[in-house]
């Protein structure tokens, strides 16, 4: 998988680019390393954390780290 979308898991996002962990934390997802977060989709995580999903995906998809 090379394109991030609403069904991409947090774990996949971090495996694609470890710098994405910091981006997720900047959005308020402080527990990106916990086991359940690894299998949680971005859609699920955004709902739990009250984050705008489109903004999150855009930030994670940017080439700059």
Q: Which terms would index this structure?
A:
about 0% strand, about 60 residues, globular, mainly alpha
Radius of gyration, in Å, reads: 10 Å
| Strand residue content | under 5%
Biggest pleated sheet: none
Helix fraction bin: 55-70%
InterPro entries: CHP03980_redox-disulphide, DUF1858, ScdA-like_N_sf
Protein name: DUF1858 domain-containing protein
Domain DUF1858: 4-57
Organism: Clostridium kluyveri (strain ATCC 8527 / DSM 555 / NBRC 12016 / NCIMB 10680 / K1)
Structure characterization notes:
By secondary structure, the chain is mostly helical. The chain has one domain (1-28, 38-65). Helices cover 55% and strands 0% of the residues. The chain contains five helices and no strands. It has helices at 10-16, 20-26, 35-39, 42-49, 53-61. The longest helix is centred in the C-terminal third of the chain and has 9 residues, at 53-61. It is globular. The model has no long low-confidence stretch (mean pLDDT 89). Residues 4-57 form the DUF1858 domain. Pfam families: DUF1858 (PF08984). It comes from Clostridium kluyveri (strain ATCC 8527 / DSM 555 / NBRC 12016 / NCIMB 10680 / K1).
């Amino acid at each position: 998988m090379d394109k991030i979308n609403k069904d991409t898991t947090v774990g996949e996002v971090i495996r694609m680019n470890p710098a994405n962990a910091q981006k997720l934390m900047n959005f308020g997802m402080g527990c990106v390393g916990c086991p359940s977060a690894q299998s949680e989709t971005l859609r699920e995580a955004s709902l739990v954390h009250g984050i705008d999903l489109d903004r999150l995906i855009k930030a994670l998809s940017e080439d700059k780290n």
